[in-house]
Amino acid sequence: MNDKTEELRDIFTDVTDGEETVTESQEDTRGSLERDERSTEERLESVVQQMRERYGFDDVSLSDDELITVAKSFYEGDSDAEIADALGVEPETVFEARMALHLVDEDDADEVDLAAIRNREEDDATLADEYDVDETQIRRYRRIAAAEDESRTANDRYRDEFDSVLADSELSERMTTDVREDGLEDATEGMETDVEF
């Protein structure tokens, strides 16, 4: 070791509190298209539990597992009646569960402007006459408007999480499969397979 090198080593050890070497342990990580290592079920369970803690779900008679089924089925395009049939409950129970989970479909209130009835103080009968629907339908519209308001108050965070888990899961699975297949193709391209040992 020449004088300059030794001088640099001395400076280095002074700066590093006497350590002769500085090494950082490296972790062998692989890239992933998925942002979360938890399973789809675990992520859904987490969202449902957070929502139950925050909102109470007093009007919801379904268990967390059943609520997860409602969310999955909703994203698969099933109607309330189809989901209710699968769970052995009434469609109205599924509707209430969807509203509690902020899963409002664009077809839920396509006949009425929710913004127009959102803050109306008239009773259900008056609005039902005005919109030429029955009171049950007005109560339903008001429940949809309330669910949308609740979702907006939470910055649509729970709906976004459902979107992330359920709407993107099929795409993510398809992409990871394609990447694996492409990677295997690239790795084996040009290899001789007829090799004798």
From TrEMBL:
Superkingdom of the source species: Archaea
Chain intervals with Acidic residues compositional bias: 16-26, 183-197
Compositional bias (Basic and acidic residues): 1-12, 27-43, 171-182
Residue segments, region Disordered: 1-43, 167-197
Protein name: Conditioned medium-induced protein 4
